């Protein structure tokens, strides 16, 4: 058995300049850098018989004595995040990425299928796991990939699903309703908003912005992304699932072309809404974290757009910055759609909002579920109607009346700042969708 790293040893890995996903999950699409702090006074000395104060805060690990690699091979542990160092993807030093670790823990992915609205994302699922909160295992990712490759072909315990669909979105645009509808089909395995996908896609951006280095090999980054998706594609051999659907975090739409190039056979869709509504939702109090923090970690697309317009990201107002960030997401989808003739651009207002027909007859068949719907159209329609009647995320809503959409629809306040910024940065693009 390998001596893998437990959660408490992440401090040591952090000295590599690594990024830990287990702590990031509480930071809504925000990358956190864990850095050791200088001790101003010596640590508290406890009596020998007294348990460590840190250890006392954690429950006993139920899997402490087991072979954790074997548990990954058998599907008992799932990927919860990735960690990498500033030099993990340097162009020199061989063809493989280095110093990349996966975080693994035990969680019940079936929660999403049992109640999609209450567990709409992988983070919501893992939040129910005490093991993920307290006992994640940090293991070199290349060792994991070698181990699963050695057993997946010969073992009858796990199978890999093909990537059937990729779902991107502008944020707060109803993409969760699409992924929740997909989840209701037995043949569909949906992985929604996984931070490992986000972090693999943005690895070179982070290394450029945080560590001021351009030495990041796209080929090694793509290898990491493919390995992440491979791990997410593994399901028990007894599962009825035949399709893997990946719903990417909103900011990952800036890297739409990169992800699609790895899975060209997969159908992809981008969900958007009116520019003013999208910006208003993104900049609501406590919701502007992602786009405002893009100032600190801008994507290559956002940097290029700022240069093209002669704008300084540091000097932009929050509304202008967020509007430009959202514009890069929409532009990535529009350009790919126009250049390749692939993809479906889905309007929240026209195609999703209370539109069972569009979902059942157009969107889901396009994404590969036509045969499933045709096999039992009445049941499929009933399930989709139930999904569209609920908010896409009810995890924080306790009252039943709050979990359902109001008949009058959603009320969104459009301020002058929102109107001006959305028109300046997103107006032209909206005319192309």
In words, what does this structure look like?
The chain has 22 helices and eleven strands. The protein is an alpha/beta fold and 433 residues long. It has one domain (5-34, 65-430). The protein has a five-stranded parallel β-sheet, sandwiched between helices. A four-stranded antiparallel β-sheet has the order 1-4-3-2. A two-stranded antiparallel ribbon has the order 5-8. The longest helix is centred in the last third of the chain and has 23 residues, at 318-340. Residues 5-47 have low confidence and may be disordered.
Brief summary:
This protein is of the alpha/beta class and about 425 residues long.
SSE blueprint and pairings:
Layout: E1 5-6, H1 10-14, H2 21-24, H3 53-56, H4 68-73, E2 78-83, E3 101-105, H5 110-114, H6 122-126, H7 130-134, E4 137-140, H8 141-152, E5 158-160, E6 163-169, H9 175-183, E7 188-192, H10 195-201, H11 203-211, H12 218-232, E8 234-236, E9 243-247, H13 256-262, E10 267-272, H14 275-282, H15 289-292, H16 300-308, H17 318-340, E11 344-347, H18 348-352, H19 356-375, H20 377-388, H21 400-403, H22 416-430
Give the key terms:
single chain; 433 residues; alpha/beta; five-stranded parallel sheet; four-stranded antiparallel sheet; 12% strand; globular
User: Over all CA atoms, what is the radius of gyration?
Assistant: 22 Å
Structural class, by secondary structure, is: alpha/beta
Largest sheet: 5 strands, parallel
Mean pLDDT across all residues, rounded? Answer: 86
Span from first to last CA?
Answer: 54 Å
Fraction of residues in β-strands: 5-15%
Q: Identify the overall geometry.
A: globular
Poorly predicted ranges (pLDDT <50, ≥5 residues)? 5-47
**Helix proportion of residues, in percent?**
40-55%
